[in-house]
Amino acid sequence: MISSRRTTALWPAVVPAALVCAAAPAFFVVQWAWLGWVLLALGIGGAWAIERGRAMASGPSLTRDLSLIGLGMLIVSVIPLAAELDNLAMLRFTLALGGAVVVPYLISRFVFRDRAISFPWRTGKRWGRLQWGWLIAVLALGWLILPFYFITSGVYQNWPVVDSPELIARLFVGVGAVGIWDELFFICTVFALLRRHFPDAAANVLQAVVFVSFLWELGYREWGPLLTIPFALLQGWIFLRTHSLAYVVTVHLLFDAVVFAVLVHGHNPGLLPIFLV
After folding, report:
1. ∠200-204-205 over CA atoms, to 5°?
2. Are 24 and 73 a contacting pair, CB within 8 Å?
3. The whole model's pTM is what?
4. Residue segments in the chain with a per-residue pLDDT below the cut of 50
């Protein structure tokens, strides 16, 4: 479970944190890598300058934690995030996205000697009626909203055509794998590290900036942020309430199951006649 301690004052520490998180739209939205590097350097350097005057203070280091977030984004930024389904592209995604989670975790655990990043899969508590009800609501809302978004905006074309059983299977694996990774990185890494320094609401907004920027390059464009911003914020809030990686992953996979079905439907009209659009 993530510690609820807040050891860094909101101001001025939020400025370097915001700069580091602003590197995400630089990398993944406008795709100006140089700007992302500059923002990371300014943010991490600013955190170091703030902490320099309290070097003997106890508590987690903002500089270290922002460095871990920045490192994860740098690893992801080395590959194009356009959805592709060939073997090389899937290997590239596996190595880059996997490295963005594993490398910060290993550095945090074995170099910094802390447990800032963890993956609390089970909490020992059963899901209540509200939690089960939300899972049903996710499917219903996805069924109503996602086809309209993907089809009318044309963003389904940001994903490759899937017109064979093999390609459909690859799409299914890819969509699900990226969905799981989203929660491992944005919630269990970025959000967890930010919560060590800022109130939950502020940390959630900052992680949502990174989350939504990644989804933009992945293909959720046009008016997609109107959907992905609330989704990112809700995932953070749900994790705060449940402390369960299993639950937020389940929510995400149900959402992505609808995404997968809509993409198949968009490229193969009539194959899945279950949507209104």
Report:
1. 125
2. yes
3. 0.92
4. 1-5, 8
